[in-house]
Structures are given as C-alpha cells and as structure tokens.
Amino acid sequence: MTESYSIGVDLGGTNLRIAAYAAGTDFLETVYLPTRLDAGRDRVVRDMCEAIAALSKKNYGGRRLAGVGVGTPGPLELPAGVLRNPPNLHGWDGFQLKSAIESTLGREIEIESDGNLAALAEQKLGAGKTQGIDSLCMLTLGTGVGNGLILDGKIWCGFTGMGGEGGHIIVEPHDGAPCGCGGSGCLEQYASALAVVRLAGELMGTEAPTSSHEVAMLAEEGNKQAIQVFRKVGWSLAIGLTSLINTLNLPLNLIGGGVSEAWDLFAPVMFEELRRRSYVYRLTEPGMREPSRVEPNKTYVQLAELGSTAGLLGACLLPLQAKTTQSESKENTFVA
Question: pTM for the whole thing?
Fold first, then answer.
C-alpha cells in the first residue's frame, strides 16, 4: 500500500508557514514566508498556493498526497470557508478564503480556524495523547487569543463554524480595552502578546518594552510593573477559564502560544483566581496539577506540549482527519 503525506498551511497575520507531513511530530519539509498583507488578500493566497504547489510536486519517497489543510484566524464560517470580521486580518471580512485557494490551486482543500487546529494537534500528538484524553479545550496566547475545542477526538466548531472563540469572552465589562472584534474588554485584550505590550506601556510609559518576551524578562528580573502585567494576564485567564470550565466541564484545558512561555509569572494568580471563581474547578481540582497520569473526574489546566508547531501540525492532520471521518460515515451507512 502506497504511503501518503499531507500539506498543511498556518496562515498568520505576520508569517505564513507551509509544511509537508507524513507522521509523528516532525515535518518532511517546511516553507516560511512573510504574510504580505499590504500587498492584498489575493497576493497572500498566491504566495500560499505557489508554496503548496511546489511541495505537491515532490513525492517524498513515493508517497501520495492525501490532501491539503489550511488553518486561519477566525471567525470562520463553515463549510463555505468565509472569513467574518477576523480581528487580526483587517480588510478580510467576507473574504471567501476556501474558494479563493481552491480556484488558484486547482484542487479541493480542508479549512479550519487555527485555534481548533492547534487543539487537534495537541489531542492527537501532544498533551491529549500523553494523558490519554480525547476531549479538551485549548487557549493559544499569541498575537491574539485563539481557542480550540476537541470533543471525543473531533473538532467542535459549532453549527456555523464559529465555535471556539473563547478569546472574546468578556473579562472587563466596565471600561474594557476596545477589541478588533468590535467589542471591548475581551480576554484577547488582556492575555495576548499585543495585550502584554499594551499593558506594559500603560504602566511604564515610553520606557516600556516593545515585545511580550522583553516584558517577561523584566518581570523575571523583579521589575514590579512587569510583574503586575503578568498578574493581570493570570487574572484575566482565570475569568476566561471559569466560563469555559463551568460551561464545558472538560477534563483538560491547555494554555499554549508565545505568552505561555511566561507560565511561572502568570500561573500562580491564574490558579488562585480560578479556584475562587469556578465552583466546577473547586469541586474537581486535582491533587497534583501535573501528574504523570491524570486522575479520572478531575479538571486539569496545563501548559500545551507542542509549542509553536501545534497550529501547523493541526493543519497537516486536518485532511487526514477528514478522510477518516468520511470513511467512518460510509461504514455507518445502511441500505434498507
């Protein structure tokens, strides 16, 4: 039987990553490109498709291309693959991304929100696999705050594809910072990389660092204002997690993305506030937060395992997941 491979795309507001993938957590080949937003949506799509086409011409030791998966910032309307006011892709509202890619590429693709794909990868190859858990919730703290939901090993994207927008849970209902979604006080405005920089600027003025990593370094050195920034991150995450845990009651809740590297700076406040606010968490709090094996009927909040590759891995898994689902559907079809 001929082995297969897939191609995944992680469309970000700054970078465009395309990879060929066969199995495990390593890629056969990866292409990194800038996301040329200033050149327009069509140019970004052409850059993406040119890279996909180049990888599709390689058979990687006789492998057959099984499909192409694309991850994009949401909200994303499915199954049409239309973007609806994505806060971090200005000017892309109403863009028929799936159709644009397919017409340029000349083949069908699978498409999903990047948060859901990161969660899919963590369930199949990361923390979910490690702990033997097939249902989880994930928050990705990057340029914005993404959210992914996996139920019984499958992506839960809601009835229009817009499920998993936990980054827009309101954590500051009064005088909250305006958000790109059109609202204000969203979790994204208090726990993302951009939020960390903004909060630091409000406290430090012109002397504030220009990256979340630099703010974290200052906090680790004992800077009181930088420490306060990450206390705010932890407090905000606790409010968002309270809503998710109380509503979904899932066994595993993961925190990933670049800001998660500052875990030790925000996690103590996050757990303290989460314990105070979420009665479901209090009722199901585990004896150990990071056991070698999770206890049944306990709620875990942990760091994600796959790091920055999670979204791209999820995009590579997506067409393979779709084929598995189609096969299962055919097997469960009965003729009267």
Answer: 0.92
